[in-house]
Design brief:
The protein is an alpha+beta fold. It is built from 2 helices and 8 strands.
C-alpha cells in the first residue's frame, strides 16, 4: 500500500506544479461592462443566455441557460474573466464576450471544448 500512496503523492506534486496561476490581484471592475443579458449560440446551433447582475467590486451573480440546463452561481471576475460550472466567460471588448464550455455527449460520454461568442443586450 505504501507504494501506491507514494505514486499518488508524487503525481499530485507533478500535476500541481504544472497548473498556471495568474499573479494579478483581484481588482474592482467596471460593472456596466459585465452587467446585463448576454446572448449567443454554439457551433451546433444551441443558443445560450448569460445574465450577469449585482456586480460589486470583482464579485457578481451569474445565471446561465442553454436548452434545459440552468445554472446560478456567484463568481469572481479576474483578468476580464469568470468561471461558472463547466464554462469560462471572457470579456473580449465592450459588448462582446467569449464563452468556452466543456460539453459532454450524453450517448458516448465524450467531452469537447466548445467556443462561442456572446453579445451584450
Amino acid at each position: 500500500m505504501g507504494d501506491l500512496y507514494s505514486i499518488i503523492a508524487s503525481n499530485y506534486v507533478t500535476v500541481g506544479a504544472n497548473v498556471s496561476r495568474s499573479n494579478t490581484p483581484y481588482v474592482p471592475v467596471d460593472a456596466p461592462s459585465y452587467e446585463g443579458s448576454w446572448k449567443g449560440a454554439y457551433a451546433n446551433g444551441d443558443k445560450f443566455t448569460i445574465q450577469v447582475s449585482n456586480v460589486v467590486g470583482f464579485r457578481a451573480k451569474v445565471r446561465y441557460q442553454s436548452g434545459s440546463t440552468v445554472r446560478y452561481q456567484d463568481v469572481l471576475i479576474k483578468d476580464n474573466s469568470f468561471k461558472f460550472g463547466d464554462s469560462k466567460f471572457t470579456l473580449t471588448r465592450a459588448g462582446l464576450g467569449q464563452i468556452k464550455t466543456v460539453m459532454t455527449n450524453p450517448a458516448t460520454g465524450a467531452q469537447s471544448l466548445e467556443t462561442a461568442y456572446a453579445q451584450q443586450n
